[in-house]
# Entry
Amino acid sequence: MRIGSRGSKLALWQAHHIADRLRAAGHEVTIEIVRTLGDAMQHVPFAQVGDAGRDGKGMFTKEIEEALLAERIDLAVHSLKDLPVELASPFAIAAIPERVDPRDAFVSVNYESFASLPHGARIGTSSLRRQAQLRAERPDVQCLEFRGNVDTRLRKLVEGQVDAIILASAGLERLGLTQYRRECFSPLVLCPAAGQGALAIEARAGDEPILAALAFLNHEPTRYAVTAERAALAALGGGCQVPIGIHCLPADEAYSVAAAVAATDGSEVLRLAMNRQSGDPLDLGRKIAGRLLDQGARHLLDMVASAPGVGPGAAAP
# Structure
């Protein structure tokens, strides 16, 4: 089997993790590095990446899917939150392994918590979702454009370019870079991106031998949760460029849901918390979106879409 992966340390960790599980199941595996637009433009603000014609969709996946379609690779390992909510018809999510910590982490050299930051502190994050919810809690903080791989962002933090950064806790754990992780935010304060902390194994939709070989990697409770999250995101008409957070947590026979839609400046945040018995995850996702829309989420999303430099492509999850 040939696995396609981006070349970042985190992407390669993920690819090797899946490769090891496949080898343990008796498969021969190689890893092919595929350079994506998001990698090539990692030092460019997201709004300019959108101007390059991708509109924030498939920034980290399109070139990998092209390799998959051309049969240069047999499967791809993605961070699920990087995948567009609707896949093109030639592709399928063959498996979603068990998710690790989905929360966002507060990372700082000098400060022990978000609350302890001084007035006017500088926080590095390019994500509108994170910026909006942080500003709702602390209108005084400055959110600065901060791109690059995890190790690049940590280096900038240590150099003192900002007082803190916000990163996915899962990535820090996978890379063993938790030294400056001070706390993880409750999803009721900083709601994660749909699919955060989960991996997606993508394959060609009609490649039955590969799909069958990958099936053992699937973790059904995780798949249910992220399917509901992505269905809600799709129903809201959002992607990684808008300030929407959705988190579905398995709990016994039920699922606990937290969701948020925010104005980009943090002046207004609509939040949802609910519990739901197991059922159709797509139906759950649509119900999450419907309740947020009933609260007025469409007005906030329309404001985001019309804001200069904040439309499609402006920020990652």
Observations:
- The longest strand covers residues 254-262.
- Residues 9-24 form the longest helix (16 residues).
- The mean pLDDT is 88.
